[in-house]
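S1.2 Input.
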Amino acid sequence: MPILLVGLNHRSAPIQIREQVAVSESNLPSALTALSQSCPNAEVLLLSTCNRSEVYIAAADLLRQREGILRFYSDFFRQDLDVLNGYFYQYEEEEAVHHIFRVAAGLDSMVVGEAQILGQVRDAFQGALAHRRLGTILDRLFRSAVAGGKRVRTETSVGDNAPSVSSAAVDLARKIFGHLENRTILVIGAGKMSHLTAKHLIATGIGKVIVTNRSVEKAEELARKYQGEAVEFERFPETLRKTDIVITSTSAPLPILAKDQIKQVMRERKNSPLFLIDLALPRDVDPAVHSLENVFLYNIDDLQAVVDESNEEREQEIHKATAIIDKEVECFLRWLHSLEAVPIIKALRLKAERIREEELRKALARLGNIGEKEKKVVEALSAGLVNKILHHSLVQLRERASRPDGKECMECVQRLFGMDISEIESQAQATEESVCKSDGTERTESEGV
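S1.3 Output.
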């Protein structure tokens, strides 16, 4: 079953585009439903992070499914496809497989080796699994990709001292502002990104940390953890007057800091410099704020310079990680190509079983009136002979299917045993459709990801 990926990321699309197609955790169920409706009879998975939006499909008709993916982006996000099309990339088969393995390993991230993406890939997999959108192919693909990402993290140092987006933001603040010991930083939002940001802030010896969030409990929890001060969300504009650096990362659909609001704050601050680091997607800060005097606004894309320095220093470990991923991809592709033998194996077994049953019927007729015990012995003998004759051949057939000459081998077997190719293809299509409709929930009981 072919695999298709259509998406955009921090390399192909600016933040202005990425924020238009971002999916929050609360919107994931409705997004997956809409995607499945646009791509019927397909396994689907949606990976949405601050730096990428990618749709993975496993289905028979990739051309029709690609049209469905584009329709999903247009209808669900209410976007003009003529605009989005210029930012999409598309990978099929081996390229799509290689891409998700690199993504899970952190090798395709803005910050190469960052740890957060592995968890985000796992969450996307679990989300699609929980909402019954996966079948055999994508289930195996994402389990393998996550396993490969874990290997990279444990067998290489590519993730050691690798800044996440949040730590890169802190480094940028330090470069711009100098020492941070006497500075006050306001962290808006108490999600994962804010937790990581606060952690890096404490490590710099920051003077004071103020935390705000729509949930007072979450803000207080984060403030206690990092010995900071929590303020109610409605009151955070007041704290801007005494704040030097603002790091914001919420899931708000619209900006929470407007130009007029910051303009008034700057008057009250007597125009002393204010640094805003916007880690949110969609963005929390109105881009027009950048035009205000002594206000310095940086978003995710602006962190690229800090990130590039980190990536260059870890080049050797990146090569090690790439070698691991290449082997993991090769292993998955062998399994994937071996599936091409499944319809032929089923057809061969069916053909052998029909012959066995017919010959068994003739033999029993010639034997005349024999008892049930004898009939069972003869039947077991015929079944045993068929299984023993086929076993080694079928094992070799599955193994050869994963080789470069696998297709020629399959065709040779079809001709050798006189099997109808069209019948085999129709059986394969029926198998694919049944796989797409399966929810995969039974597979998760014993396999943790």
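S1.4 Remarks. The chain has a mean pLDDT of 85.
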